[in-house]
Amino acid sequence: MPSNAMDDVVDLPTPLSRSPVLRQPEGVLLSDALAAEVPVALVFNGISHAVMMATPQDLEAFALGFALSEGILDSASQCFGMDVLPVQIDGGAALEVQLEIAAPCFARLKDQRRSMAGRTGCGVCGLDSLQALDLAPPRMPEKPWVRDLPAATVLRAFEAMAPLQVLNAACGSLHAAAWATPEGEVTLLMEDVGRHNALDKLLGAVTRSGQINQPGWVLMSSRTSHELVRKCVRLQVPLLATISAPTDLAVAMAQRTGLQLWGLCRAPRAVLYTP
Q: 193 pairs with which residues across the strands?
């Protein structure tokens, strides 16, 4: 990946803010940390494609992960440059992530004719047709190590994930997506107010670091929806585990694509939905 202008940008919003709160029933006045929720526009070759409400941190990884998991890019090498810039709008600060991408990818993006206005819990806002949902991604090749992964390894990774959620420990309102080895070692974790955003940040980060080409899997502090399954399948991630239960569509998509899906991963038990 090329370098970007992030180091040259000043006055970017911070991921946490502070607010006075009154704790009841004691009536104690405290200063509490709140997660920042900032509009982030993803701009491809000068055209704004999506606006997501996100935590203003790790935005280069977020933009790359979004571009890959939404099929805008086929590989990170098709992104030639990236800048993160502050933008002033009515009601507060906003950010733009401007990406320069290869001409064939940009042509495909324009052909999709999608205009998304994302919210923290929404993964399909703004789709212009039912066909654009992409509910049947192609099946992934089987990886033998995934079939043999025991529940103890999955739970070990979840135990290791919690201490790494530094921002959530301060504010209590952020999702986390983490990358783990087949042995259950967590090597990378990303946080965001939106679970889709957290996953995109993680997928972008593991792509930039090269970990996406090594055996590994994703665990998340959320439920599993079909969008999360689709994003993992697009990047050939063979296993997804979440702390809450999946939806029926997520299970059906995981079965069709060969993704091993775990849910309700809360020690001492975990549930395997696609054996």
A: none
